[in-house]
Design a protein that fits this description.
The structure is a homodimer.
Chain A lengths: L7 E5 L4 H12 L3 E8 L6 H12 L3 E6 L32 H16 L3 E3 L15 H14 L5 E3 L7 H11 L21 H12 L11
């Protein structure tokens, strides 16, 4: 049970295992968490169902924000663009320009409105090879921008920033994250495809720890 | 006629006279303009109709982005909150937390996708007494954040930043802005209410120049 004096935080929740781990980490730090889930036209809408499940399992509140990116240009928004397979050099086709900037901006709006002191985001090392809005220097610059553009001080935390997928899974295990309720696959079919880069990194993470993924992989 | 080599720009267009002036300013600078209009749950939805009219009058493209701020907390989003009247001390009730941060973030996404080099925003001195995300130091910090979080360099321009409403109207006149196609009133009725702070500043601006507003005011 949290006391009424618990600090509150907005947690960006995608339904994947990274943000689920961040949610449980924030809770373990004593924050009352308000999850922000985005329905942004992603083809793998299924992750939203999982995000809700995780928020509920953790006993947290959540808000769904519906937005459109009418300009597409990403494999996550446009069926005609092929999803990245395993390791890709440079920017993967799943990149949605400024997506984390948009998500964090909504989190600022939400945080200030509900007087939350902190925002948590699950950006991490594996992502920032390709995604500019996952880099540590971006997070630092966003933090400074928020200080100038908001009435209240809102801190931005990215506790996974320098962790590998295996380290995130290990941390999630310790925190009791229900990984069976997390969804990573970009295809959003009945089972994870096991072929897209998101599935690849997830499987590699579990394997390197000698663990099985609690989610079934399509054969 | 613009040549194919015209640089392109994303212009945040609200339907009011500030952003309309910015649009005509950007065009005068030789930019091919792509307007971004937000349908964000504002009670004065009427401004969207005017924004489209201005975009069309200027011969520019536009995109409408539909988003929700499910947390309300502003007189622009919630009928139960009274609109500010004339001059208010501190933050007016029309303040939507982080609205410009959200709008500029979408502009970054759009700009990078269409390879526009610049974003124009109509933030200005009159606003930044109350709105933290209209202050010059915010615009500067946002610019630095964009440099860290994007693949491509996108410049942010706020050409009205240090201008008063009267100076903006004077500039708009010179540029041929069709002020009759701009809408400022927060109430969004058949005619402008003439009572909200947005109407107040608009009327004051025209009056100080000895001009009449081409839009009819409700008696």
């Amino acid at each position: 049970m949290k006391s009424k004096k618990s600090p509150s935080a907005v947690v960006l929740l995608s339904g994947g295992l990274d943000s689920a781990t961040v949610l449980y980490w924030a809770k373990a730090q004593g924050f009352k968490c308000y999850c922000l889930i985005f329905d942004y036209g992603q083809l793998h809408k299924k992750e939203i169902i999982y995000a809700k499940k995780i928020a509920q399992a953790s006993g947290s509140n959540y808000q769904i924000v519906k937005i459109t990116f009418p300009w597409k240009g990403s494999a996550l928004l446009d069926k005609k663009i092929a999803l990245p397979k395993k390791i890709v050099k440079g920017v993967p086709s799943s990149y949605v320009a400024a997506r984390n900037i948009v998500f964090l901006s909504f989190a600022l709006s939400f945080a200030e409105t509900i007087k939350a002191q902190r925002i948590f985001i699950g950006a991490h090392a594996q992502d920032y090879s390709g995604y500019p809005d996952c880099r540590p220097e971006f997070i630092a610059a966003f933090r400074r921008m928020a200080q100038k553009g908001m009435l209240e001080k809102v801190e931005i935390s990215a506790p996974l920033l320098f962790k590998t997928k295996a380290q995130i899974i290990r941390l999630g295990q310790k925190l009791g994250v229900p990984f069976a309720l997390t969804w990573s696959c970009y295809r959003g079919g009945r089972y994870p495809c096991g072929k897209c880069d998101s599935c690849y990194y997830r499987a590699k993470g579990f394997k390197s720890l000698g663990l099985g993924d609690p989610l079934k992989i399509k054969k």
